[in-house]
Amino acid sequence: xxxxxxxxxxxxxxxxxxxxxxxxxxxxxxxxxxxxxxxxxxxxxxxxxxxxxxxxxxxxxxxxxxxxxxxxxxxxxxxxxxxxxxxxxxxxxxxxxxxxxxxxxxxxxxxxxxxxxxxxxxxxxxxxxxxxxxxxxxxxxxxxxxxxxxxxxxxxxxxxxxxxxxxxxxxxxxxxxxxxxxxxxxxxxxxxxxxxxxxxxxxxxxxxxxxxxxxxxxxxxxxxxxxxxxxxxxxxxxxxxxxxxxxxxxxxxxxxxxxxx
Length: 261
Ligand SMILES: Cc1cc2nc3c(=O)[nH]c(=O)nc-3n(C[C@H](O)[C@H](O)[C@H](O)COP(=O)(O)OP(=O)(O)OC[C@H]3O[C@@H](n4cnc5c(N)ncnc54)[C@H](O)[C@@H]3O)c2cc1C
Description:
Helix content: 25-40%
Number of strands: 11
CATH superfamily: HUPs
Bound molecules: flavin-adenine dinucleotide
Shape: globular
Order of helices and strands: EEEHEHEHEHEEEEHEHH
Strand order of the largest sheet: 9-8-7-10-6-1-4-5-11
């Protein structure tokens, strides 16, 4: 089985995330960049499948600037076998639809893939749609919010967990699976893994190498764009009701005033 793990390098949650003043895209230069935590979970899910199935292989695919190689190396040091890095200045500012189309092209360079494992939502863009869009572009099933994953023969089965409950899903391969936050804890790379990762093959593709038309990507052709951004206003202090024997009536009065009862 050949499993593609989609990983994105994102600004560290501990560093300040801001948009550049010039084009309102994420200012990646001024922040610490790391592999997205949910993508470590996706790589872990792929590695568990690889360990459960002989002759399996995990190929990491990432679209991002040159420095995304650090995130790719982290996935390789966890145990992935090889990587495809789609990197081209022209991709800057691509929207979710363009990202999904471009990643689909990069995935197309991986011969004989059966399963794509992604995170359900990136912690920077938070669009939460790229895996389903890739499934649509490639014409394969999409299994979302997955917390457990198994493959038997040509069938993938998954436990899907949302706020509403737990669902069991199955689909025929090839398919796309997006991993939820509660999925398997990612392993730490071992020293041996870190050393081995340095020698694993990483194929770097530009637009031409991936067969992407420049008019299909980038800020100038994006279907959506961020027009402005501002920090959330701080929460207002709540109203305090002091109970002087009439607390219940005061609360009822307040709720009526808010048209809540
Ligand atoms: C502050 C901000 C606002 C933005 N607003 C918008 C907007 O309103 N509309 C819009 O279309 N775009 C927007 N973008 C762009 C967006 O971040 C991405 O470039 C792209 O649209 C994918 O969205 P996402 O990463 O949130 O994807 P999600 O769908 O949240 O990502 C889910 C999973 O898909 C995979 N994946 C996503 N991107 C990559 C990648 N580059 N390489 C490998 N795997 C990947 C990962 O496995 C990831 O866990 C915004 C970006 C920022 C930083």
